[in-house]
Design a protein that fits this description.
Strand order of the largest sheet: 4-3-2-1-5-6-7
Bound molecules: nicotinamide-adenine-dinucleotide, magnesium ion
Helix content: 40-55%
Radius of gyration: 20 Å
CATH architecture of the largest domain: 3-Layer(aba) Sandwich
Order of helices and strands: EHEHEHEHEHEHEHEHHHHEEEHHHHH
Distance between the termini: 63 Å
Shape: globular
Number of strands: 11
CATH topology of the largest domain: Rossmann fold
Structural class: alpha/beta
CATH class of the largest domain: Alpha Beta
Length: 390
């Protein structure tokens, strides 16, 4: 007799990670039963996904779009709802595996709700961990949840880090492609347009993370993400530029051994790893072609041109929730850049100035609850907005 299908939900199914997840699940209709799909605004794609996967529930975050989604799914068995509470309802529907792929701190409450089920949560939404790492990891422990990293670097670390040897880790090294402007001078960086910044050389991703990759704030967020996921002090988390994006991370042990995971730059590989774990899923994604001559380069990052990598280090011993300020200021700065209201080389400086002012205006302690996290986020966002555009 065939095994019962695994029940799955995708929070943020219309995004880049969400669409890759839908593709993988659609290839195995017997293995997976889709409980819920959510999106913020893209009714057409959400409805098409719900029909393709025969989803139990489709939720659109923007409440004004309820009637459109209802009409698009008329005559299908899919239940339809809308608004922020409906997103939480989707995350609380029982499922064996839930993909957290909403972008930004907007993913925090749905992700925590998913964690509260005590099943498996595949985490792409790194901003939620950056803002609420200690609270989220405590919830994971309390509910006995399996939290599997989807971010390619963290998924690589997860694959090669033997928990029995944790005390023998000397450091982990996250690789960074360097983004589209790796060789740009400071003067060239000042003139970068949103269209140029959205063109990543090796990965195809959503708008926000593409800009974060171009400024390397993405790697700064990933250093914080790794600190919480693997419970390591920040000074044991290093970054190297690796333009080919084939080696996704390395774990170095005290005996000098360095273990790594390699794969083509295709998010379907880490997503499939979390979907099937502890088993493996055959996929048709891109392959690392060893029948060609392959070059693998590692370089030290230039901290003068990519200051986010140095800025993140002030989070290491922070007890004031400064990571929330870093994330909020970055979300504001990226939105301003994409709207043509901020120069590319003024994204990280806005984050720096909010972080510099943070000790004076912060409540002075780590957030004790998720409501506190949103209060801190609101304070930092207002401060970032009050700096105007640049
Ligand atoms: P995306 O912008 O392509 O998709 C975001 C998804 O979230 C969409 O489904 C959108 O409808 C939904 N969404 C947006 N705002 C929302 C809101 N306010 N409330 C509810 N839902 C909302 O983003 P993405 O590139 O797929 O990235 C998703 C997350 O995964 C991010 O945290 C990103 O850092 C992380 N991540 C992405 C990649 C990648 O390859 N794209 C790789 C690693 C990690
Ligand atoms: Mg990554």
């Amino acid at each position: 007799m065939a095994a019962a299908p695994k029940t799955v939900s995708i929070l943020g199914s219309t995004g880049s990670v969400g669409q890759n997840t839908v593709d993988l699940i659609a290839a195995y209709p017997q293995r997976y039963k889709v409980v819920a799909l959510t999106a913020q605004n893209n009714v057409t794609l959400l409805a098409a996904q719900a029909k393709k996967l025969n989803a139990g529930l489709a939720v659109i975050g923007n409440p004004d779009l309820y009637a459109d989604l209802k009409a698009a799914l008329a005559g299908t068995p899919t239940e339809v709802s809308a608004g922020p509470d409906a997103l939480i309802d989707a995350a609380s529907r029982p499922a064996d595996w839930i993909m957290s792929a909403i972008v930004g701190i907007a993913g925090l409450r749905p992700t925590l709700t998913a964690i509260g089920q005590g099943g498996t949560v595949a985490l792409a939404n790194k901003e939620s961990l950056v803002c609420a790492g200690p609270l989220m990891m405590a919830a994971v422990a309390r509910h006995g949840t399996t939290l599997l990293p989807v971010d390619s670097e963290h998924n690589a670390v997860f694959q090669v880090l033997d928990p029995r040897q944790k005390t023998a880790i000397s450091r982990i090294i996250l690789t960074a492609s360097g983004g589209p402007f790796l060789r740009h001078t400071l003067a060239e960086l000042a003139a970068v347009t949103p269209a140029e910044a959205l063109k990543h050389p090796t990965w195809s991703m959503g708008a926000k993370i593409s800009i974060d990759s171009a400024t390397m704030m993405n790697k700064a967020l990933e250093v914080i993400e790794a600190m919480y996921l693997f419970d390591l002090p920040m000074h044991k988390i290093d970054v190297r530029i690796h333009p080919q994006s084939l080696v996704h991370a390395m774990v170095e042990y005290i005996d000098g051994s360095i273990l790594t995971q390699m794969a083509a730059a295709d998010m379907r590989t880490p997503i499939a790893h979390t979907l099937a774990w502890p088993e493996r899923l055959a996929t048709t994604g891109q392959r690392f072609d060893l029948n060609q001559n392959i070059h693998i380069d590692f370089e030290m990052p230039d901290l003068k041109r990519f200051q986010a990598l140095e800025l993140v280090r002030s989070i290491e011993n922070d007890e004031t929730g400064m990571a929330i300020a870093l994330n909020a200021a970055n979300e504001v700065a990226v939105a301003q850049f994409l709207a043509g209201k901020r120069h590319f080389d003024q994204i990280v400086p806005l984050v720096r100035s909010v972080m510099t002012m943070w000790p004076e205006i912060s409540p002075g302690a780590m957030p004790a609850t998720i409501d506190d996290v949103f209060t801190y986020d609101g304070i930092a966002r207002a401060l970032a907005e009050s700096q105007g555009s640049a």
